[in-house]
Amino acid sequence: MSIISKDIQKAVQLLSNEELVAIPTETVYGLAGNIFSEKAIKSIFSTKKRPFFNPLIVHIPSVEVLDNIVNHIPNKAKLLADAFWPGSMTLVLKKKSKIPDLITAGKDTVAVRIPNHPLTLNLLENLKFPLAAPSANPFGSISPTKPEHVARYFKNDIEMVLDGGACTNGIESTIIGFEDDEPIIYRLGALALEEIEAVIGKITVKNKKEHKPDAPGMLARHYAPSTRTFLVDDVALEVKKHPNKKVGVLVFYQSLNNDALTEIILSKKKSLQEAATNLYSSLHELDLQNLDIIIAERFPNNDLGKSINDRLQRATF
């Protein structure tokens, strides 16, 4: 099994030797490797079984490093970086030629962010290179928000999971790209649309693209349990359509009070932030229960509810 450890120097050694290490962020755990090592980057794709057309996110320790990665920073990108970094926001910007095409799926842009996790910021500051780090899960599966999720997925495929505890935000970063220097959301995430618009004004959302996606997380099916999953407005009504089935339900704050079901309430205090934090760990829990189906409740379509609905919609098939 992968060792779960807080030993940063061990992580530095492995990463410097072109090995992979799973790292914590405030969003989800990432499967990290040296961006300048072809061996490490190819290993990320092969370990995850991730297609090469899907670009990776580069993680850096500070905004000062950004000039080493990108050629141009639009004014609105600077405003966003000042407001939300370190944090759950990824910017897609024109890349410098030294950034390998393998990371960017051949595009002239690179996705980059500064994670808001003390352990990983410390790690990045102790490395001589940035890290590429997509979510530490097999491609398309539920993202990991605890070190044991990663260890269960990859067992002996990676040597180390850097233990940063449970992720506080629980869903991936919001990804913002720029077209003619105007921002556009490529992936809804842990930074709410309303927070972004408070800084830069109205912003377009274009967060699904099957062919040559502009950023990670744009494919229609993603973040999915192995158990068949439904997203509905009325969970109790949907339950009635599946008699004699082992059913798990995922609800926002109100219990169905049905002992025949395996039920998880995401936030009894009706907090969208708490629900987002608990989303993936709850899906992991339900997915291990040998259920026939999972029925998830659709969230209010505002603030982080938009991002939660986005993830649940991609989990259905």
List the helices and strands and how they pair.
Layout: E1 3-5, H1 8-16, E2 21-23, E3 30-34, H2 38-48, E4 57-59, H3 75-84, E5 89-94, H4 101-104, E6 109-113, H5 118-125, E7 131-132, H6 147-154, E8 160-162, E9 174-179, E10 182-187, H7 193-200, E11 204-205, E12 228-232, H8 235-240, E13 247-251, E14 262-265, H9 272-287, E15 293-297, H10 304-315
Parallel strand pairs: 1-8, 2-8, 4-6, 5-9, 10-11, 12-15, 13-14, 13-15
Antiparallel strand pairs: 2-3, 3-7, 4-7, 5-6, 9-10
Helix pairs in contact: 9-10
Can you offer a commentary on this structure?
The chain has ten helices and 15 strands. It is globular and about 60 Å long. By secondary structure, the protein is an alpha/beta fold. The mean pLDDT is 94. Helices cover 29% and strands 20% of the residues. β9 (174-179) and β10 (182-187) form a beta hairpin. The strands form two sheets. It has an eleven-stranded mixed β-sheet, sandwiched between helices. Strands 12-15-13-14 form a four-stranded parallel β-sheet.
